Amino acid sequence: MISIQARDSGSSARAGILHLPHGDVATPAFMPVGTAATVKAVRQDDLEGLGFKLILGNTYHLYLRPGMEVIRSYGGLHRFAAWNGNILTDSGGFQIFSLARLQKVSSEGVRFRSHIDGSQHSFTPEQVVDIQCDFGSDVQMALDVCSSFGIDRREAEEAERITAEWAVRAYQRWRAAAADYQGMLFGIVQGNFFEDLRRRSAERICALDFPGLALGGLSVGEPFSQFCDTLAYSAALLPESKPRYLMGIGTPDFILEAVRNGIDMFDCVFPTRAARNGTAFTHAGRIQLKNACHSGVDRPIEDECRCPACRRYSRGYIRHLFKSAEILGPVLTTLHNLFFLKSFTDLVRQSIVEDRFSQFARSYAPWYNGNGARTVAET
Amino acid sequence: MISIQARDSGSSARAGILHLPHGDVATPAFMPVGTAATVKAVRQDDLEGLGFKLILGNTYHLYLRPGMEVIRSYGGLHRFAAWNGNILTDSGGFQIFSLARLQKVSSEGVRFRSHIDGSQHSFTPEQVVDIQCDFGSDVQMALDVCSSFGIDRREAEEAERITAEWAVRAYQRWRAAAADYQGMLFGIVQGNFFEDLRRRSAERICALDFPGLALGGLSVGEPFSQFCDTLAYSAALLPESKPRYLMGIGTPDFILEAVRNGIDMFDCVFPTRAARNGTAFTHAGRIQLKNACHSGVDRPIEDECRCPACRRYSRGYIRHLFKSAEILGPVLTTLHNLFFLKSFTDLVRQSIVEDRFSQFARSYAPWYNGNGARTVAET
Fold it and tell me: What CATH superfamily is the domain B2-267?
């Protein structure tokens, strides 16, 4: 399912091609998040124009709205969202533990109330596979229990245990559906920030023959150094032969650390959410377009950038759009940030192919200030 | 400034070409409203793609934000907004009387407080010309006093009198600026819904040699029949040789009545505002995309429509976007409504060229139900 085309000699970084039902995807790949079957503020033809071949959808959100009846009536998400590229859907686990009003987790499954209307629902690992089969997801994720940063060992152990049990049930359900469904099921390794629990989780999850593997429960508020440490020992537990997905990261610093450890895929709402709030990514760090220093500035967000925003519009104009609460502000900045991430991951890939990844990574030092998420360059 | 290319034999409808500093514009023309130097929810390249050559900006809004210093630093609105087509700016009169906290109207000018921060400002007819010269507007409007529907004759007379005085001062200021400024100044005929006041206003305004003339104070809440009557006797007062602009209309019924009476240009926020609220224009009437009847419907807003929304997305998907408060809902529906108005005015023009305007207008009967603004077709 993944062909490795090049390896970096100074790290575990690798460049590959992911083979999926709706076409090949070059890796390392950033996947834009389209929670409700839309990557917020951009059109599907823009995503195509930017070169994205694989986007995310959120099972929890789509199950609640528009609901399975509507999605089934379209024969799946691709036709519903008018998107002919690949779609990866998460298992809903993360949303249930962060967004919904969680009611009960048991070995059987999870019971929760909708954040939209308070209605009661439950997910079992089997149901979540069925839902994602109905979506026609090119990659689906097994239901897992997400544990927070800072919990005690006993709680982390329990989350790991249930995740492992659910993985077996999800795997069996997916195997049973194979006749009618072309998509892949990925298992998720949990274990919080305990090395032995990560090891135990990886052993249990990798014992099943999932076509791909994910690391969950990282980038959930821990210090950057702890993220790096946990990532390093966890990624090393995953088999070389399969695609590796690190859930929930999307800034150059986190991406470079992921790729350095052999990660192939990653997603994050931050680049698009930040864009809607006026934060633009540049190769020299982040800038906040609402700041007064951009008033009247007749230069693009980033000089030389070829994105649809930078080719035409100035910082001063985009700042005005944000100050006036105009939709075009989020639209243009989202286009820029997505273009940035596509270009950035293309450059990462090229550096691996040319065996100069570590040197390349060093040029993103401005993104590593503080914990990496706080860098602001007002250039 | 306008070349008339064809006239309808059964009405005053005419097809022409408006010659403006940033290029020719085919008439009758609908002008999308870009209040804050952005037509809400669409990109400038989309407007170009849809075929618009002339958009509006609002002097009141742009004067307050980003303010004259920023706009002057860009050398005008065209560079600021990255728009190479024509821009018409209104005089700010309508906004001062509807949106700002009006403080005082005198023969000298008008004093008001900003709706953004309460700061105090004043406009004189001369200042408003200067502001629009700094904008580099291709067409600018003289400051006028907008009177409401239902006021008494004395009030309407006073508004007409001040408008006429201001028109003289604006005209002189514009003439004096001619060496450095290529744009046109249009005079505005007021007079409320009193035929003799309209006549008096038209005489006074047309006595000045404005390059174009507008009818103001129509479509402000009056019954459709009263709109039609007032339009008919007011439009007949305007010279044949100049472009005629009816301010504030943008639905097929009002446009057809305007064109029938020899109007060349019109603008309205309604088509784009309605789009952001889920209302789509079709040749058979308006539809509200949020309605349950569109759930799961795998058909475009309008069959055969070639707009960027209809070529790719279904009603059911767009309904889902609105129900989920996703930005893409307003974006796609705005594109559709603007495409609709461009196509519609192109068809109107063609029907004039082929001398079958009245027959064409009859095919829009569904838009004339009730007072024309209430038609909803749930097809």
Answer: Queuine tRNA-ribosyltransferase-like (3.20.20.105)
